[in-house]
Design a protein that fits this description.
By secondary structure, the chain is an alpha/beta fold. The protein is built from 14 helices and twelve strands. The chain has helices at 9-22, 51-59, 81-94, 105-116, 131-140, 152-162, 186-194, 219-222, 251-260, 262-265, 272-284, 289-308, 327-339, 369-380; strands at residues 37-38, 98-102, 121-126, 143-147, 168-174, 199-204, 231-235, 245-249, 319-325, 342-343, 346-347, 357-362. Strand 3 (121-126), helix 5 (131-140) and strand 4 form a beta-alpha-beta unit.
Length: 381
């Protein structure tokens, strides 16, 4: 326990902050300095600074859709037409029965499994699944195991041992992992599902949508396997430069989530203007193939450069880790890159395991050729 009996809570908090600082793990809210090349954003397609795209959106925006707040949950008066239109377009894009929009990826991942799980539900989650997914599992209160990262053989052995004891089993993973940038074996995941009739697949495409797929709908869509995913979660706050998240699913699942997903039921709905922008970007994604190709090509070149230095790098995406090891060393490396004009933040425990503190390069299509070549030079130097 981090607290001591007899201390008031503020004193205990101050002592804990001091301990975090001594370990090099104390976080503070940063402010993005001006004039630096931003390599810590999730704006993978570079839409945030695209003024022409933004002006095209505003030009076609109706007066009703300009509202800055829904002022209510969707189960009261916040079920605005823009939400229903976006959900209809998402379902059509994926060829699915239904979709449901959440206020954020965290809301989706902490609300879906608790709403669907029963007393005879088991969850298997990849060891490196995002914290929001783990929080959702814990909130569900059901039995769960974490299989070794990207080890579907381990997941299979756990299913062979335990699946028969449960009515439903959810296998949960990300498509692109947020700290290492590696990708899941989707074909293997679907094969696993087909061998166990009570298994449902939950795929978090937070870092896949926008960047992967011919029309930017993610890794599962790119592989032609989106129809095999029972719960496909995507986020709008990263490559789409918007806000919110969604799940693509069966119609009955959507209806149960509307009734039982607490982060959906008890949250003010997203503003109409935000929903309209997300829908606008969804329709524009198909024409952004050049941006996707560019950011993925940069990811491959940067990963190759890091591996050439002898450092481990398993990235197969636009997220490329530069593993340093110690917390202080990671902070020093971040300072070195900042002095050279690049804004990249150190990632430290508990976000990553002890001894694997790193810089995480989040590449965007907005990075210029000149800056990218300079970045490669810093890696080698």
């Amino acid at each position: 326990m981090w607290y001591t009996v007899g201390m008031d809570f503020v004193t205990r908090i101050e002592a804990e902050l001091a301990r975090l600082g001594a370990r090099g793990c104390l976080r503070r809210l940063p402010r993005m300095p001006e004039g630096l090349c931003n390599l810590s954003s999730n704006d993978y397609l570079g839409l945030l600074g695209d003024e022409a795209l933004r002006e095209a959106f505003y030009a076609g925006l109706s007066r009703e859709a300009r509202a800055l707040s829904a002022a209510s949950s969707r189960l009261l008066t916040g079920n605005v037409p823009e939400a229903e239109a976006l959900e209809g377009d998402l379902a059509a894009a994926y060829g699915a029965e239904a979709a449901l929009v959440f206020d954020s990826g965290y809301h989706a991942n902490t609300g879906i499994v608790p709403a669907l799980a029963g007393p005879k539900t088991l969850v298997l989650a990849d060891k490196l699944s995002h914290a929001s997914m783990i929080d959702g599992i814990r909130a569900a209160g059901c039995d769960f195991f974490r299989y070794r990262h990207n080890d579907l053989g381990h997941a299979r052995r756990l299913l062979e041992r335990h699946a028969g004891d449960y009515e439903d089993v959810f296998v949960m993973t990300e498509s692109v992992f947020s700290m290492d940038g590696d990708r899941v074996d989707l074909a293997g995941l679907v094969a696993l599902k087909r061998d166990f009739p009570n298994v449902a697949l939950y795929l978090d495409e937070a870092h896949g949508v926008g960047v992967f797929g011919e029309t930017g709908l993610g890794c599962a869509h790119e592989a032609g396997l989106a129809g095999e995913i029972d719960l496909l979660v995507g986020t709008c706050g990263k490559a789409w430069s918007s806000l919110g998240a969604y799940v693509v699913c069966r119609r009955a699942v959507r209806e149960l989530l509307v009734n039982r997903a607490r982060p959906f039921v008890f949250t003010t709905a997203l503003p109409p203007v935000n929903l309209a922008w997300t829908r606008f970007v969804l329709h524009a994604l198909a024409g952004m193939g050049a941006r996707r190709a560019r950011v993925r090509a940069m990811g491959r070149r940067l990963a190759e450069a890091i591996r050439a230095t002898g450092r481990p790098c398993v990235s197969d995406s636009q997220i490329v880790p530069f593993v340093v090891g110690g917390n202080e060393a990671a902070a020093a490396e971040a300072a070195r890159f900042r002095e050279a004009g690049f804004y990249v933040l150190p990632i430290r425990p508990p976000t990553v395991p002890e001894g694997t503190a790193r810089l995480r390069f989040s590449l965007t299509a907005a990075v210029s050729d000149v800056d990218f070549e300079r970045l490669l030079g810093l890696i080698h130097g």
